[in-house]
Amino acid sequence: MGRMIAIANQKGGVGKTTTAINLGASLASRGLRTLLLDCDPQANATSSLGFQRDPARRSLYNVVLLAESPATVIQKTTLEHLDLLPSDKNLAGATIELVDVENREFQLKQAIQPLKPQYDFLILDCPPALDLLTLNALAASDAVLIPIQCEYLALEGVSELLDTLMRIRRNLNPRLEIEGIVLTMYDERTTLSRQVAADLRSFFGSQVFQTVIPRNVRLAEAPSHGKPILQYDPASRGAVSYVQLAEEVIANAKKRSGQGIERPDQAAGTDSGATGAAAGAGEIE
Q1: Can you say whether residue 205 is alpha, beta or left, with left for phi > 0 and alpha for psi between -120 and 50 degrees?
Q2: 131 and 95 in contact (C-beta within 8 Å)?
Q3: What are all long-range contacts of 67-75, with beta carbons under 8 Å and residues at least 24 apart?
Q4: In whole angstroms, what is the distance from residue 80 CA to residue 59 CA?
Q5: Strand ranges (DSSP E) for 23-106?
Q6: Between 154 and 194, whose confidence is greater?
Q7: How many CA atoms lie within 13 A of 261 on its CB side?
Q8: What is d(CA 134, CA 146) in angstroms, rounded to the nearest whole number?
Q9: Rounded CA gap, 186 and 194, in Å?
Q10: Residue 171: Cβ within 10 Å count
Q11: DSSP code, position 207
Q12: Residue 121 pairs with which residues in a beta bridge?
């Protein structure tokens, strides 16, 4: 059964889509069947994987609002083992159309639950708001991964986000875990980045991933070429960081399942040696 991870933060510009795309690509590069679900009406994850805007292409809107089979909407990407359930501007209407729907927070879960046995990981790129689309994603997911930009204002928003997650756990999804907090746009040259990182690790401890995502020009360029960083510049610092993050996510999955995930490198008897995010990852309170 696949592990469904929502990439969420109500603050915009923290690297949610970048993390969703490149974590998904890194998991796929390890031979793991991975599905990226673009839950944001801006469709940045869709375009960043090389899919141009196409009014004729069906999207997550068709799955959630029109009850179409996800199998007819899923797109193959240029990266082996990575599939995409695309978004488009029509999804913006979902927050209005879902308002009067019974069990409105669970429409996405009901629509995509049959996909879980087909994939090892399902990554949901959420909008930068706690709207009905994000609530649907969090209600459907096993865990939430929180990207936090290394700046002062990010510290102010993280406590509010965690309070929201606790309410979601009480009211919508009691099994929702925190996959981990990942520090993004980290610039080791600045005192602010180092201080924010130190404060977050001091407060949240093992819930913060060991991997940090640096500010990286190549990482910022990749979406304009319609490629994840592993295809655009696999030797860049950004690519290396997301591979390391994927290894931590894989290590977390092994700890939780108690048996691990079979991958080609394991069959060959090799070990990536990646460090897990933490024994405490997954605690909300």
Answers
A1: left
A2: yes
A3: 67/111, 70/111, 70/112, 70/114, 70/115, 74/35, 75/51
A4: 21
A5: 34-38, 75-76, 82-85
A6: 194
A7: 26
A8: 13
A9: 8
A10: 11
A11: G
A12: 3, 34
Type of residue found at 37 = L
* Residue 199 burial by Cβ neighbours in a 10 Å radius (0-12, 13-18, 19+): middle
Contact 85, 36 (CB under 8 A): yes
The rounded distance, in Å, linking the Cα atoms of 276 and 180 is 10
For helices 237-257 and 16-29, what crossing angle results, to 10°? 70
pLDDT digits 0-9 by tens, 113-137: 999 999 999 999 999 988 999 999 9
| 258 C-beta neighbours (distance < 10 Å), count | 6
Q: What is the pLDDT of residues 74-88, one digit of tens each?
A: 999 999 999 999 999
Distance (Å, rounded) from C-alpha 83 to C-alpha 49?
10
- Domains of the chain (ranges, CATH numbers): 3-267 (3.40.50.300)
pLDDT for residue 161 = 81
The residue with tokens 């606790």 is 166
Alpha helical stretches, state H, the chain: 16-29, 44-48, 60-64, 94-97, 107-112, 132-140, 152-171, 191-204, 217-221, 229-232, 237-257, 264-267
Burial of 127 (0-12, 13-18, 19+ CB in 10 A): buried
The tokens describing 80, both together, are: 């082996």
Tokens of 166: 């606790």
